[in-house]
Amino acid sequence: MRIWFRQFKDNHMVRDLTVSGYEEDTRTHKVVKALEEACKEMDLAVPVWLDINIEDFKRNAKCRFYQDSFIEPIEFDYLEIQVIEEDHM
Question: Where are the domains of the chain?
Answer without folding.
Answer: 2-85
